[in-house]
Design goal:
The chain is an all-alpha fold and about 150 residues long. It is built from 5 helices and no strands. About 75% of the residues lie in helices and about 0% in strands.
C-alpha cells in the first residue's frame, strides 16, 4: 500500500512538472492549422471528400499567405518601434527612458495575462455562445432583454 501511495505521488509530481513546462498556446505551422481547420469544417459542415480536398487546399494557401503577411507586418512594426524609441531617446532624460520602459514592460505583462485568460474562449462553429443573439453578451441580453443600444429584443 505504501508503495502504491509513493508511486501515485511520483506520477502526480511528474505530470505537474510536465504541465508547468508548457507555456502559452502552441503555435502551429500553416499546414497543420489548415488541416485542423479543414477537419473541423468537414465535421461541422458535413463536407464530401471532394469538398474536403478543395477546402484543405484553400485553407493551406490561405494559411501560408496569412503567415507571410503576419511576418512582414511584424518586421515593419518592429522597425517602426525601434525608430520611435531611438527618436524618443533624443528627447527624454535617462531616468525618463527607464521609467518609460518600465511602464511598457508592465503593460506588456498585463496584456499577456489578459491574453492567457482569453485564449480558448471562442465557441465552436456549430455552437451558440450565451446570450439571446449568440454573441456571448450576458450583460445586455440578461439585463435589458435585448441587444444593448438597439431598442429591440
Amino acid at each position: 500500500m505504501k508503495k502504491l501511495v509513493v508511486l501515485f505521488s511520483v506520477l502526480v509530481a511528474v505530470s505537474t512538472f510536465t504541465f508547468a513546462q508548457q507555456s502559452g498556446p502552441k503555435q502551429l505551422d500553416p499546414e497543420t492549422r489548415a488541416k485542423v481547420r479543414a477537419d473541423r469544417m468537414k465535421e461541422n459542415l458535413g463536407l464530401s471528400e471532394e469538398q474536403y480536398k478543395q477546402v484543405l487546399a484553400l485553407n493551406t494557401r490561405h494559411a501560408k499567405e496569412r503567415q507571410d503577411l503576419i511576418m512582414a507586418h511584424r518586421e515593419a512594426f518592429k522597425k517602426q518601434n525601434d525608430n520611435f524609441k531611438s527618436d524618443l531617446g533624443k528627447v527624454l532624460t535617462k531616468e525618463q527612458i527607464e521609467k518609460f520602459e518600465a511602464n511598457q514592460n508592465f503593460r506588456k505583462d498585463q496584456m499577456k495575462g489578459r491574453m492567457k485568460n482569453f485564449h480558448g474562449q471562442r465557441p465552436q462553429m456549430n455552437q451558440k455562445a450565451s446570450g439571446k443573439h449568440g454573441r456571448g453578451c450576458e450583460g445586455c441580453c440578461q439585463k435589458s432583454g435585448g441587444r444593448k443600444g438597439r431598442g429591440r429584443n
